[in-house]
Amino acid sequence: MNFILKSWVKYCTKEVFKTLKIVTIGSAMITIVACAKYKPVYKVTLAGDTIGFITNKEIIKAKIEKYINDTTGNIAFREINELPEYELKLINRDKETEEKKVMLAVQNMTVTTYRAFAVTSNGEQKAVVNTQEEAEGIINEIKADLKQEVDLKLGIVEIYTTDANVASSKEEATNVLNQYKVAKVTEYETKKAEEERIAKEAAAKKAFAASRARSYATTATSAPTGNLNGMQLSIPVTGSISSRFGSRSSSRSSIHTGLDISTPSGTGIRPISAGTVTYSAYKGSYGNLIIIDHGNGVQSYYAHCSALYVSQGQTVDAGTTIGAVGSTGNSTGPHLHLEIRINGTPVNPQQYLY
Known about the structure:
The chain has 5 helices and 20 strands. A hairpin with a 2-residue loop joins β1 (38-46) and β2 (49-54). The relative contact order is 0.08. The protein starts with a helix and ends in a 7-residue tail after the last strand. α2 (57-68) runs parallel beside α3 (99-109). It is rod-shaped, with a radius of gyration of 54 Å. Helices cover 35% and strands 31% of the residues. The strands form 5 sheets. Strands 10, 11, 13, 14, 15, 17, 19 and 20 form an 8-stranded antiparallel sheet that branches. Strands 3, 5, 6 and 7 form a 4-stranded antiparallel sheet that branches. The protein has a 3-stranded antiparallel sheet with strand order 2-1-4. It is α+β, with helices and mostly antiparallel strands. The protein has helices at residues 2-37, 57-68, 99-109, 132-143, 170-222, and strands at residues 38-46, 49-54, 75-79, 85-92, 111-121, 124-129, 154-161, 227-228, 231-232, 240-243, 259-262, 268-269, 275-282, 288-295, 298-305, 307-308, 315-316, 323-324, 335-342, 345-347.
């Protein structure tokens, strides 16, 4: 029995070794065939997409890290939301690996932010350059011959952008700022010239008004005066007579009931004598009209006024400015229409004045 058992064990052991030998040889042959046809590589995926196959993942990892951390030039920083994943695979030995393709895919997924420097005027961006030194150089050049009165309020602002081409060359930026400077200087000089013109006009008007006031005062004291019913009269304005009492014209339907004295618009009007204002308003062809009652049946009319300075019921004297010469109503130009009425009947003012 022992002999039979030993024989059987010996037989089984021999068969097992025989089988192991066959398996080992088969595995070796398969491995040799596999190695001859395939090669081990890493499949690289990014954001769920296969971007290529590589031989050495550590080298690729190092290149990716170096690329992301690169801040040379005007690069401020780089960001990538997701890093690649690696999986060991066997691929056909004839297939080439794709390190460059993998790196390009990583670069396309990376957001690069650049640092630049904007030259501003009063807070408004005018030009962008790569370095602060360039910006400072441009400002110094712009200010070199700038008039002291023209303050461009130039400044420098550090900006961050994903546009790699946002900055101009220093020459281009300087040209832009120079054109802006010329425009601002021209604007300043134009404004200053306009202010000087307005000031000169105002001074001229003031001098003219003062001269006219002096002329009027001199004329008023030395001009011919008349006496009407014991009342001393004085002329209301100086000027030239453009239409006399009793004349006819195509611009009126009846004979002229007054005397027209041509004088600049705005000239002050004074009454021929003291009295009470009985009318001060617009009245048909007379335009703006003032009527003054001097007593003893004497009235005076002042027509075509551009302004009325008195109101009905007001008492005035010969020195009061009651209105201003104009061309309202039926009028062909600035003048004073003066009427003198006695008991309601117009009389020729030249019997007493002018």
